[in-house]
C-alpha cells in the first residue's frame, strides 16, 4: 500500500510539474489558442532568460517600443513576436542566422495586451517570455500619417541606417519609410513590409526578418551582430505590393 501511495504521489508530482511548465505566467485567456496556432501545440517553457522589455503603460498606442533580450541562450534559430489581443496577432518572425537573437522595434497596440517572444532553439524546443502593456487602444485601426505628406510615394522604402562598432560587435539601427497600413482603417487596404534581410558584401544573409501589419509606421529596428569591419552592408526586402527595398549601408 505504501508503494502504491508513493507511486501515486510521484505521478501527481510529474503531472504538477508538467502543468506548472505549461501554465501561462501572464494569465491570458488567448494563450492556449495562440500556442496551438503559432506553435502547433508544441510544449513551451516559460523561461526568465527570455525578456520582453516594454513600457507598462503605452504613451502612444501606435508606437510602443519593444526590446527582446535573450540572456545566455545558445543556438537560437527563430524568434516569433506576438501580441495576444491585437486583431492581427503576429508582429514578426526573426531568424538571427549569424546575428545575435535579440532585437528592438516598435509596434501598434489595439488594446492592453501581453507581448510575447517565442524562441526556438536548434533542437526544436520552444521557450517564451513576455510582458503586459496597458494601452489606451486604437493603434491598429488608426490610419497612418504618412499618406498625408505630398512626397510619401517618393520616400517609400527609403532606408536610413547607422552602425556602431565596439571592436567585436556592431549594432545596426534601421529606419524604413513605409506607412505599414494594417487594412483595418476604413477605406485603406493593408500595405506593409513583408520581408527584410541584412546581407554582407558577398550577399550572404546575416539575418532575416518576416514582418507583419502591427509594426509601427516607418518601422525602426536595432540588431547586434559580429563586426564585419568597414565593408558595406546591404538591406534588402519587399512589401506586400511587390515594392522592393534595396539599400547599401556604408560603415
Gist of the model:
The chain has 251 residues and is mainly beta. The chain has three helices and 15 strands.
Characteristics:
15 strands, mainly beta, 39% strand, disordered N terminus, 251 residues, Immunoglobulin-like, six-stranded antiparallel β-sheet, single chain
Please work out how many helical segments DSSP would assign: 3
Order of helices and strands: HHEEEEEEEEHEEEEEEE
> Based on the structure, what is the oligomeric state of the protein chains?
single chain
For the biggest sheet, the summary is: 9 strands, mixed
Alpha carbon gap, first and last residue: 73 Å
Mean pLDDT comes to: 90
Largest sheet, spatial ordering of strands? 1-8-7-4-5-12-11-14-15
**SS-based structural class?**
mainly beta
Broad CATH class: Mainly Beta
Uncertain stretches: 1-21
Helix content: 10-25%
Could you name the CATH homologous superfamily?
A: SoxY domain
In one word, what is the shape?
globular
User: What is the CATH topology classification name?
Assistant: Immunoglobulin-like
CATH architectural arrangement: Sandwich
Radius of gyration (Å) = 20 Å
Total DSSP E strands: 15
> What number of domains?
1
Strand content: 35-45%
Kindly describe this structure.
With about 250 residues, the protein is mostly beta strands. The chain has one domain: Immunoglobulin-like (Sandwich). It has three helices and 15 strands. The protein has helices spanning about 1-20, 30-40, 150-155, and strands at about 45, 50-55, 65-70, 75-85, 90-95, 105, 115-120, 125-135, 160-165, 170-175, 195-200, 205-210, 220-225, 235-240, 245-250. The protein has a nine-stranded mixed beta sheet with strand order 1-8-7-4-5-12-11-14-15, with no helix packed on it. Strand 9 (about 160-165) and strand 10 form a beta hairpin. The protein starts with a helix and ends with a strand.
